[in-house]
Amino acid sequence: MSDVPDDPATDGGADAEPDGRGRRLAPLVVGAIAVLMVGLFVVFIGAVTGDSDGGASAESPLIGRPAPEATGTLSDGTSFDLSRRKGSWVVLNFFDPTCVPCIREHPELVMFSEDQATLGTDGAELYSVITRGDQDEIEAFFADNGGEWPAIYSEADEFPVAFGVAQVPETWIVDPSGVVQLRLISEVTADQLNSILRQYREQYR
Q1: CATH number at residue 117
Q2: How far apart are CA 66 and CA 145, in angstroms?
Q3: Complete edge-to-edge strand list for the sheet that includes strand 48-51
Q4: Are residues 6 and 80 in the same domain?
Q5: Strand locations in the chain, DSSP E?
Q6: Range of 33's domain?
Q7: What is the pLDDT of residues 82-138, one digit of tens each?
Q8: Residue 57: which pLDDT band, with cuts at 50, 70 and 90?
Q9: Domain check: are 73 and 137 in the same one?
Q10: DSSP, res 53
Q11: Domain count, the chain
């Protein structure tokens, strides 16, 4: 009989089983995580499509449906009811005066507003939906940076909540029937919005 004790590293007993099982499970766990990450990436790419000329369009359960019954107050104190804007193309830009992308895109919105004004009654109505900042701050921003379209304020962010807006800037387009046609996330350009509306008008006739 040998007096040499069994080597724990080569012992196939119960003490070695957890290490072996862990080595077998590790590749499976890593593989599962990799599959999950790939799946999330595919879902993200499917939900958001980029546009080299401006913001990216994004999916929303509101697309193709009547716009939410969103209400707010304009700078002059009058009430704003989105459902009463039927008959016009409406562009809603959700805005925060401290948001850097919002500040960068503002000159583009100024140009877009001016372009739409040249179309008379066919031009779209542009509104800034305020997600942060008081009226004095917003009016000071517009005085310094241009833009004469109305700003909408809402109690407890009811307007942004109705559209599910968590981050700004976001821009939404509502057709004359009151149906949501498009959601754009990130910055937009005047050329992009003008082109989109031109296509929509041709399809809408």
Answers
A1: 3.40.30.10
A2: 33
A3: 48-51, 54-58, 180-185, 170-174, 90-95, 125-130, 151-153, 71-74, 79-81
A4: no
A5: 48-51, 54-58, 71-74, 79-81, 90-95, 125-130, 151-153, 170-174, 180-185
A6: 1-51
A7: 999 999 999 999 999 999 999 999 999 999 999 999 999 999 999 999 999 999 999
A8: confident
A9: yes
A10: T
A11: 2
